[in-house]
Amino acid sequence: MSYTTAYDECDDQLEPHYSRTCDDETEKARIRRGAFIHKSVFATIIADPTDNAAWETAIADGKILIMPELAGTFDGGSPKMGPGYGDQKETFIGSDFKAVVKDPLYKENWGFYKSLAGKSSYHFAYCTETQVHITGKPVTVASKNPITDNIEDNVIWESDLSWFEKFTPAPHDAPDVFTTP
């Protein structure tokens, strides 16, 4: 009796790994800018994340909202494991990801953050120094406006964005919509 498999057990090829050269520059950290991308235009944007015209069209249509000044972090993901089979103890099924972004425009953006509450139809794009990263799945947004006891602190919006997907969002050269006012 012969058996066939629905997957290729021998597909263990790796993409090339590159070594740094003396003149390579590294990408600087911090989420500096962001965007909410409606799921109806996600396929167009992710097909070529560097296509400025596609971004501009979606922005004009109200399907993308750019956030030009943020401060934030991305946790890199927490792996989720599933059951293993055969001699494999467990299998990697993907990661839970979380980004935390801070927005300094408190009063002006109250309505925006209220409108995000409970929505599950937006992907998030976040920019580091020169790269944009776009979530492969829509994000869950939980926004808050913590008020401290320090009279010198500013009241800001702080949003926790979470999602699950197989691997971390890929870096792409950020299109001009993130750098031109």
Characterise this structure.
There is one protein chain. This protein has 181 residues and is of the alpha+beta class. A hairpin with a 3-residue loop joins strand 6 and strand 7 (131-134). A five-stranded antiparallel β-sheet has the order 2-1-6-7-10. It has three helices and ten strands; from the N terminus they run βααββββαβββββ. 14% of the residues lie in helices and 34% in strands. It has one domain (33-178). The model has no long low-confidence stretch (mean pLDDT 91). The protein has helices spanning 39-47, 52-60, 110-116, and strands spanning 33-38, 64-67, 71-74, 78-83, 90-103, 122-127, 131-134, 140-144, 157-165, 171-173.
**What's the helix-strand series?**
EHHEEEEHEEEEE
Fraction of residues in β-strands = 25-35%
Helix/strand structural class: alpha+beta
Q: Roughly how many Å is the radius of gyration?
A: 20 Å
Strand order of the largest sheet: 2-1-6-7-10
Shape: globular
Distance between the termini: 67 Å
User: How many domain units?
Assistant: 1
